[in-house]
Amino acid sequence: MTFLKKTSLPTLLVLLFLPILTWSQDNPNIHSHNDYIRTAPFWEAYANGLESIETDVILLNGELYVAHETETIAPERTLKSLYLDPIQVAYELKINNRKPFQLLIDIKTEAYSTLEKIQEAVAPYSQLYTSSAGEPPLVTFVISGNRPKASDYTNYPDHILFDYQSITEIDDLPMEKIALISLSFGRFSDWNGKGRLIDSHQERLEEAIGIAHSLGKPFRFWATPDSKTSWKALSELGVDYINTDMPYAAKSYLSTLPKRLYSSPNQKEIYTPTFEVDGKELPIKSVILLIGDGFGLAQFSSALYGNGNQLSLATLKNLGLIKTQAADDFTTDSAAAGTALSTGQKVKNRSVGALPDGSPAQNLPEYLQQYGFTTGIITTDNVTGATPGAFYAHQTERDLIREIAGDLAKSPINLFIGGGKNDFLRYDVDEIGNLEDVGFELLSGLDALAQSKADRVGYFAANHGLPRVAQGRQDYLKNATNAALQFMNAKNAPFFLMIEAAYIDSGGHSNHVETVVEEGMDFDEAVGAALKFADEDGQTLVIITADHETGGATLPQGNIGKGIVEMEFSTHDHTGVPVPIFAYGPHAGEFRGVYENTEVFHKIVRLIEKYQK
Description:
Mean pLDDT: 94
Radius of gyration: 32 Å
Number of helices: 19
CATH architecture of the largest domain: 3-Layer(aba) Sandwich
Structural class: alpha/beta
Oligomer: single chain
């Protein structure tokens, strides 16, 4: 008989549409408690790689029904229909590469007679519990609930093992017949799975686990709190089978936990500002705007805790929140958000310096040229990226790379630093030549930039994209900031400098904690360089913000002493959550409060107009 002939339509639909997660043997084992009460008994647990699956059985009139009590018995729900037949299908189809698991059968009726019937029921399925062609058995049957006396365990065949439920009666046990030791969590703690375990409860739990491990047996608590916090705590305690009634959620959380825990080996010294002119109503000569792409409060926090609970940014006293919605969408992209910061205008997503009607929006470099400002942009992205492009280009579509590159030569920008030189070469127009024609001196390194006497300079740090910090990029953003500030300060003129840390956003999109933390810490080094310059200059306003949040990130847990951060993400996209804004220097208090991202432009303009002629 073929598989299709003996497989029901509901089973086929389950196989086709059930979400399946990738499994790593480094993750804790998960026990699907009361599996039979879910929509797809057995399949939901096994397709997601769970190592232990539990079902309750009642022997009634010679049949093994799957139910917790007699009143809930349904004639069609038997051990055979809900488990033995589906397991046979999984074996024949090699689902999950026949990953071995234990079926924990919780007997609700008299032990000996029910177990005798279980042996009869599983006998036709010997293929499932015997080794074949070097493969281990697919399933081991573990008897729980009402069990025979321990002294009788050895009377049962090899494929029948037992769930032992004591850590006090442990003498003369037939260890080879015991699959695991299980105890009620409530005997040791009344913790509800929120916050953390109190020390005395943790000690009792660890002692119970330790006794089981001293006997060489894996351990499970039943009736545990069923939450992410609980799953993580039980894993850290050393529980071998984590009990859950949410197999998909538990597997999703625990299987990704190692990737969401990160401790940076690159903790950095921070710069502590002097605060001599911070917030005072003194003249402003220059403005430095730092933008962390995707740098929300969780990203800020992850960098803070990852860097030993200290950041230059975290020393600042004047801060607020900005709202990031685009003209046409609740959730902005970088192009619309960058344009809002650079022009003070809400625009459509994907628009780079272009208003909703397609006309150009005046940006800060264009506005400030009337006051004789030197202006520049620095980015870890390509120079044609959406955020840096918003400070010089005017295009309705961020993917118009050739046109955005062409706008750079038309802008009043005096300095640019970033990746993506190939964006200026790969189209029909020689944009490198156009840059040189309008006076840009294209330099070979940051050292040359700091010493340059040219009026307009550019440095392509990479032909394509720059690497991330985790890929070897070290101190680039800080060094570029210092070189640019040295170049601009030598002009003896007011200046505006935009500095973007682009890869925090990439980490959010990929839900990659290391990238978020390392790029956030790298961003803070550039912040420290800007603050140090502001202290030395006394007339520079430093503003630090983000274009939007990326990833819907939260920090459920961590360890400040060890610099460990646990990040969890709710999306691979941007979110509409307000982002922080910090300010330092004269009039920094102007940036407190909660307001639209467009107000950043207008606040800068009002302060410039107050002091510049």
